[in-house]
Amino acid sequence: MKHIDKREQRFITRLTLQDQRLIKDVYPSIEKVEIEYTMKHISVFGKSERSNTLIYAPNRPNVFEIDCINRECTQEYFDLKSEVRKMITLNISEKTGVMRCQGKEAEDHLEQSCDTILDYKITIKYKN
Ligand SMILES: [Zn+2]
Fold first, then answer.
1. pLDDT tens, 48-95?
2. CA of 40 to the centre of ligand 1 (A)
3. Distance, CA 72 to ligand 1 centroid (Å)?
4. What is the 3-state secondary structure (H, E, C) of 6-75?
5. Cα(113) to centroid of ligand 1, in Å?
6. What letter does residue 96 receive in the DSSP assignment?
7. For the segment 15-35, what is each residue's pLDDT rounded down to a tens digit?
8. 94 Cα: distance to centroid of ligand 1 (angstroms)
9. Mean pLDDT of 7-11
10. Is the pLDDT at 103 greater than 90, yes or no?
11. Residue 121, SS3?
């Protein structure tokens, strides 16, 4: 059960490192951020896929993290914060992209990369 402790440890670290500010305080001109995504993970155990749309209102924390679909993943999430920041800096409303999870397949499978693929579309609505 060693990996459970490590997971918990990582989760606590993750929360500590998260931005404590709200979106409206960091980006007053933003009305809404929307992230539409499809995630795919293929391993020897099978294939999993998830699609979802996340909506971030201005009163939410300035955190744009999506959990990896592979529950054993050592990285556990995708961080889209810098993508959102880049878009706002350049005043872009829509952007699509693909990210590959940088984690490992599992704590007891470190020789194997997680490789979950995240296909995303970020839409930002600015205040007029
Ligand atoms: Zn992963």
1. 999 999 999 999 999 999 999 998 899 889 999 999 999 999 999 999
2. 10
3. 8
4. HHHHHHHHHHHHCCCCEHHHHCCCEEEEEEEEEEEEEECCEEEEEEEEEEECCCCECCCEEECCCCCCCC
5. 8
6. E
7. 888 898 999 999 999 999 999
8. 25
9. 83
10. yes
11. strand
- Kindly give the distance from the C-alpha atom of residue 4 to the centroid of ligand 1, in angstroms, as a whole number: 16
> Cβ(48)–Cβ(40) under 8 Å?
yes
Cα–ligand 1 centroid distance for 128 (angstroms) = 38
Please give the pLDDT value at position 9. Answer: 85
As a whole number of angstroms, the distance between CA 5 and CA 7 comes to: 5
Q: 91: buried, middle or exposed (CB in 10 Å: 19+, 13-18, 0-12)?
A: exposed
Output the CA 123–ligand 1 centroid distance in Å: 24
Report d(CA 114, CA 67) in Å as an integer: 13
Q: List the chain domain ranges.
A: 2-126
Q: How far is the CA of 103 from the centre of ligand 1 (A)?
A: 5
Residue 32's Cβ-side half-sphere holds a number of Cα atoms within 13 Å equal to 8
